[in-house]
Amino acid sequence: MEPRQKHTKNESGFTLIELLIGMAILVMGLLTVNFFLGNLLNKSGHLESATLATTLAAEKLEDLKNQALTTTLSSSNNGSDTLDENGNAGGNKFTRNWTISGTSAQTDVVVTVSWNRSGVTESRTLQTRLNQD
């Protein structure tokens, strides 16, 4: 049988205080990562809505430009519609308004798409000038 080893006071290892300090640092690091990921996901959702709103405004602007090729646009062509989160008609995520002003020679077309984000109304506006001779 082997003799028992004597324990000395210079044993290596972690003390309870060192473990608690290490765990506190780890928790703070994880909380920081969680905070930044939350902000990143929030910004990502906002950017997705803003990009879709800009696309919806551009689509309507193109529709109005194509319509101007066959008829003269005037303020009687002003309008609005509502769209869902995929850009389909009849939803309640986006509201798209378009106004037409100016003369028959130079017509200004403005398309605005707005949506509500956390109680704040956001919007994207595109405009162009058409020569309708």
From TrEMBL:
Stretches that traverse the bilayer: 12-37
The alphabetized UniProt keywords are:
Membrane, Transmembrane, Transmembrane helix
Reading the lineage from the top rank, the first entry is Bacteria
- Quote the biased-composition stretches of kind Low complexity, using this chain's numbering: 71-81
The question of whether Transmembrane helix is a record keyword is answered with yes
Q: Where are the stretches annotated Disordered?
A: 71-95
Does the keyword section mention Signal? no
Put simply, this protein is called: Prepilin-type N-terminal cleavage/methylation domain-containing protein
Tell me the first and last residues of the signal peptide. none
PROSITE patterns listed in its UniProt record: PROKAR_NTER_METHYL (PS00409)
What species does this protein belong to? Nitrospina gracilis (strain 3/211)
Among InterPro entries, the record links this protein to:
N_methyl_site
